[in-house]
Write a structure and sequence with these properties.
The structure holds two protein chains of two kinds. Chain A has no helices and eleven strands. Chain A is mostly beta strands. In chain A, the strands form two sheets. In chain A, strands 2, 4, 5, 9, 10 and 11 form a six-stranded mixed beta sheet that branches. In chain A, a hairpin with a 6-residue loop joins strand 4 and strand 5. Chain B is globular, with a radius of gyration of 13 Å. Chain B starts with a strand and ends with a strand. In chain B, a hairpin with a 2-residue loop joins strand 7 and strand 8. By secondary structure, chain B is an all-beta fold. Chain B is built from no helices and eleven strands. In chain B, strands 2, 4, 5, 6, 9, 10 and 11 form a seven-stranded mixed beta sheet that branches. Chain B has a four-stranded antiparallel beta sheet with strand order 1-3-8-7, with no helix packed on it. Helix content of chain B is about 0%, strand content about 55%. Classes of the chains: A mainly beta, B mainly beta. Chains A and B meet through strand 4, strand 5, strand 9 and strand 10 of A and strand 4, strand 5, strand 9 and strand 10 of B.
Chain lengths: ~110, ~110
């Protein structure tokens, strides 16, 4: 089993749809949960991060973490063509040496106008 | 701050040649990561440094790969000799540990080995 698994996609939705992106993980030591957005031929950029379980909202984006189920989600409301990108979940744990980030394989999202 | 700076942005080289990728992390960050991204394998961690010391290099594919961080503002990833299967986008990222933080990525180096 991979340490972080993510819905494979690709995912195509019409403009205005609600998008749900999900990841599961196996390492219960993960404490920080992040979503990165990567446009074509660019580096990943941080979209949202949360610490431990709970919800976090930022504009059209909502991140949810359920540590008991080892499951995280990113919801995009009123999706726009500009949201078309690959979304990577990432997780990290703090250890004696610093932080180690582990990324999911990414879900490619296309929002069609 | 200009963010994480990588060079070159693109590199095309012949099989067997030495390739050196460079990274300047964000000033003040004390963790640096090298990742490789391919369509087949996604984003893979190769190695990460904390306070200039290599902490985990278990992701380095083989002895042909080596990474150094001689000071807090510079790191290199070297491939010698390069092979076509090394073709990928190589990302450098940096972060500040011990707080809730995130890794900031550079724009990547697209390496093509022919």
């Amino acid at each position: 089993q991979k340490e972080v698994e993510q819905d494979p996609g690709p995912l195509s939705v019409p403009e205005g749809a609600i998008v749900s992106l999900n990841c599961t993980y196996s390492n219960s030591a993960f404490q920080y949960f992040m979503w990165y957005r990567q446009y074509s031929r660019k580096g990943p950029e941080l979209l949202m991060y949360t610490y431990s379980s709970g919800n976090k909202e930022d504009g059209r984006f909502t991140a949810q973490v359920d540590k008991s189920s080892k499951y995280i989600s990113l919801f995009i409301r009123d999706s726009q063509p500009s949201d078309s990108a690959t979304y990577l979940c990432a997780m990290s744990e703090e250890n004696n040496y610093g932080q180690n980030f582990v990324f999911g394989p990414g879900t490619r999202l296309s929002v069609l106008p | 701050d200009a963010g994480v700076i990588q060079s070159p942005r693109h590199e095309v080289t012949e099989m067997g040649q030495e390739v050196t990728l460079r990274c300047k992390p964000i000033s003040g960050h004390n963790s640096l990561f090298w990742y490789r991204q391919t369509m087949m394998r996604g984003l893979e961690l190769l190695i990460y440094f904390n306070n200039n010391v290599p902490i985990d290099d278990s992701g380095m594919p083989e002895d042909r790969f080596s990474a150094k961080m001689p000071n807090a503002s510079f790191s290199t990833l070297k491939i010698q000799p390069s092979e076509p299967r090394d073709s990928a986008v190589y990302f450098c990222a940096s972060s500040f540990d011990r707080v809730v933080s995130e890794a900031f990525f550079g724009q990547g180096t697209r390496l093509t080995v022919v």
